Amino acid sequence: MEKQKDHGRELEDRKRRFILVLDGNAGERYYTSMILQRFEYNVCTVGTVGEALEFMSLAQPTLLIADATLPGGSGLTLLEMMRKDVRLADVPVVIASYSGDASLEQECRRLGCAGWMVKPLSAEALYRTVQAVIERTPRRSMRIATHLKADLGSGASDVATVISEHGMFVQTPKLLPVNTTVPVKLVIRDGISITTTARDA
């Protein structure tokens, strides 16, 4: 029950925040924003430094993820501008680049970026970087919200609402004793299911 409350508070906190994604490539903007939304973050996207500055003059993001190379500027240029702006100086910035150039990363760190990622971005790298930068208690494993029918062997219609690398959260009509091992059948869609065993923690 306490875990469910903590997850609920975490979701409410996320709803009040948003991540701004700046990338000159529309496909990569879409890809990054879709992954972040699957991780239950609110996301806004822009394609140029000018659009980013205009957007941030209206609303301050919790985090900016910017491409290192952009049309009419770069993520590093924007980072430098933000550090000189009192309103935006404290907004954490993560720079993403196809280049593994150590001097570029060093310059990024010198300017005060909160993180550096090499493209193409993987879901895991994106998740761990965002968690480390903006979450009070970073999670060690990815969590994805879901809504799958689950059968814990009782015949009752339970629902799995969160799945992570190291477990899942299943809403059940009755509490189970801690460390109870139960069979779990997750219904992905009609005719397709996964069966395993799990221990209640």
Quick tags:
five-stranded antiparallel beta sheet; alpha/beta; 201 residues
Structural overview:
This protein is α/β, with parallel strands linked by helices and 201 residues long. Helix content is 33%, strand content 32%. It has helices spanning 2-15, 26-38, 49-58, 75-83, 102-110, 123-134; strands at residues 19-22, 43-46, 63-67, 69-70, 73-74, 93-97, 115-118, 143-151, 158-164, 167-171, 181-189, 192-199. Strands 2-1-3-6-7 form a five-stranded parallel sheet, sandwiched between helices. Strands 10-9-8-11-12 form a five-stranded antiparallel sheet, with no helix packed on it. Strands 4-5 form a two-stranded antiparallel sheet. Strand 11 and strand 12 (192-199) form a beta hairpin. The radius of gyration is 20 Å and the shape is elongated. The model has no long low-confidence stretch (mean pLDDT 80).
